[in-house]
Structures are given as C-alpha cells and as structure tokens.
Sequence to fold (286 residues):
Amino acid sequence: MGGFEPQARWQAAAFLAAGSPSFTDFLASAAPELLPRQDLPGGGAGAAGDLPHGTTIVAAVCADGVVMAGDRRATAGSMIAQRDIEKVFRGDEYSCVGIAGVAGVGVDLVRLFQVELEHYEKLEGRALSLEGKANRLAGLVRANLGGAMQGLVAVPLFAGYDDDTGQGRIFSFDVTGGRYAEQRFATIGSGSPFARGALKKLYRDDMTVQEAILACMQALYDAADDDSATGGPDLSRRIYPVIATVTEDGFQRLTDSEAGRYAEAVVAERMQLPDGPAAPLRIAAS
Fold:
C-alpha cells in the first residue's frame, strides 16, 4: 500500500532511540528528505540570481536588551520581487533572528531553528543559553554550505537577551557557519555598509529601547537611500520595516501602527534634513 503510513513511521528506530536533543539530527536520521534542499534546479549561481533575495537587517544593543529591524523589500536581479516580505522573526521567547540572502533558504533556516529550540526545551526541560542558541544556528548555516557554493547564500543575524549577564547580545555569521559576537550594533545584507555608517554616527551606549528603535529606523532609511535593493518606508502602502525588541520581558514585535509612527517621524525629519541627523562633535578639554 503506497502513501504515508503513520503507524509504520512511528515504529522506526529513530523515534525510539535516545539520540541527542537536536531536532536537526533527528530529522537527518528519520526523514532526511524533509530537510531544506541544497540542490538548485537548473543549476548554478546564475539561477540563484533570479530567486528573491532579502536585503538589509540591523540590530542594536540598548539599556534594556536589543532591537532588530529589517526592511521589507525582496529583489530578483534588478526587479522588485516583493514589497512586504518579512525578514525578522522570533527565535524563541528571548531571541530574534533576521535573514539576508536567498529568501526561501533563509525562511526555511529560520523555521528549522525555531523548531530546534523548541525541541531542545521540550526534551531537556530548560531553554538553551544564548550562546548555545547561537551555536545551534551556526550549525544550521554550516549545513547549507553546499547550497551556498551554488549561489543559495542565506546568512542570519541573531540577537537576544542574555539571562546570565542581564544584557542584550548580537551574533553575526558567515556562510561557513562562523559565529561572531558583535559589540553594540551589527548589520547584514546589501545595504549594510550604509546602515552601519549611520549607526556609527547615531549610536550611544545605554540608549533606551525607543532611542534604539529610532536609530535603527534611521539606519534603514540611509541604507535605502543608497542601496537599490533595500526598501525604505512606503507610506502610501503603509509598509514599514519589521521591528522587534527582546528584553527581560521577552520578545515583542512592534505592530504596523507602532512601526509606522517611527517611520513617519523619520520621513518628516528627512523632509527638512534629507541626509539625516548629524552626530554632535565634541572636543575633549585639554
């Protein structure tokens, strides 16, 4: 008899073995066909260039935790593939993750990461440390190395609230799964050089959550101003960057109306100052 047989599947050895608390390891042994595909139909980096790509993500540490924001544009070559894609997601109660690169691969990676964290917590009865979560995400990125070599590059930016230190932390990654702890703020994606330049100018230690949100919104605006693949606030369509905060109280995503208020404030200011606010220059007393 063809088709899926639940009873036969649940009698498989993989479901009864002790194994590790990693959902990815379990899936690789029980049903490897359900893991994200790494082959590229039609093959090669040229085909990957025609796939929708997500672009700019920014994150900044603040006094109460961390803020992450992402623009909403996806591009396929020189075309706008989608105007309202979401690139910032909840990792678990105390973390968030943003993606840049091939959108489909990135979204699959995030979904697998979310299940990985939930699976571990159910088996172990406790959540992973923030360092442990970053390490698990690094492993998932490394598993996509074969796809990345074919042009299916997807790179995350991970941030969360660290219970051990009572502070927000940010981790960046490279395509080989290298994991790097960032200080103060970080950016990824095609508009990241411009967003990083803006944050260098605007960031201050011990910013409030609201100040960090505004700085991230300004940084995304600067990225959209110079990078065609990054989308700025679209007031006519009411499409605003996705903004998430992670504090001692947990993950929270701003509603569209809340994000819209920040976006409208930035746009109104740019009507008077097109290049944005300038950082004050201070000369130390001799």
In short: The chain has one domain: 51-272.
